[in-house]
Specification:
The protein contains four helices and five strands. With 150 residues, the protein is an alpha/beta fold. It has a single domain, classed as Nucleotidyltransferase, domain 5, CATH 3.30.420. It has a five-stranded mixed sheet, with helices on both faces. β2 and β3 form a beta hairpin. α3 crosses α4. The longest helix has 24 residues. The two termini are 23 Å apart.
Length: 150
């Protein structure tokens, strides 16, 4: 089974995508996918799973500061449920989809982009990819036994 992990930060308009290296050690920004139409977004993610020979997909799960599911869970669930079905239909039934606490990942991504002085125009795409990297970094650290986030 592949060590490569794909991470998704599902937003209202865009889905930030990050991928790990083939050893599952490093998170790299990959691309931004339009969230609508939803079917096309899911198809693109399934294609990326095949192209990168992904073993796991980790999706940022919107929880509030008390750890309860946030208002955006419905939007994320509307991507995750068809994604799981299409992965199976496409022969990627060994790929596991994980939900990951995404608290403050967008805030961290914006802070990082402020530090490197990214322009507003470029920030719209970059922030989603960087947030996906943050989700992926947390997941990879946990998998290595270094993280304390669920």
């Amino acid at each position: 089974m592949s060590e490569t992990v794909l991470a998704l930060d599902v937003g209202t308009r865009r889905i930030g995508v990050a991928v790990s290296d083939d050893r599952g050690a490093m998170a790299l920004p990959l691309e931004t996918v339009d969230a609508e139409p939803r079917g096309e977004a899911v198809d693109r993610i399934v294609k990326l799973v095949g192209d990168y020979q992904v073993g796991d997909v980790v999706v940022g799960w919107p929880v509030d500061m008390q750890g309860r599911e946030g208002r955006a869970v419905g939007r994320v669930r509307a991507i995750v449920e068809p994604l799981e079905k299409r992965l199976e239909a496409a022969g990627h039934d060994e790929v596991e989809v994980h939900r990951w606490d995404e608290r403050l990942t967008t805030t961290e991504a914006n802070r990082l982009l402020d530090d490197v002085d990214v322009t507003r125009r470029r920030r719209k795409q970059a922030v989603d990819q960087v947030a996906a990297c943050k989700i992926l970094e947390g997941f990879l650290a946990r998998r290595r036994g270094e993280g304390n986030t669920p």
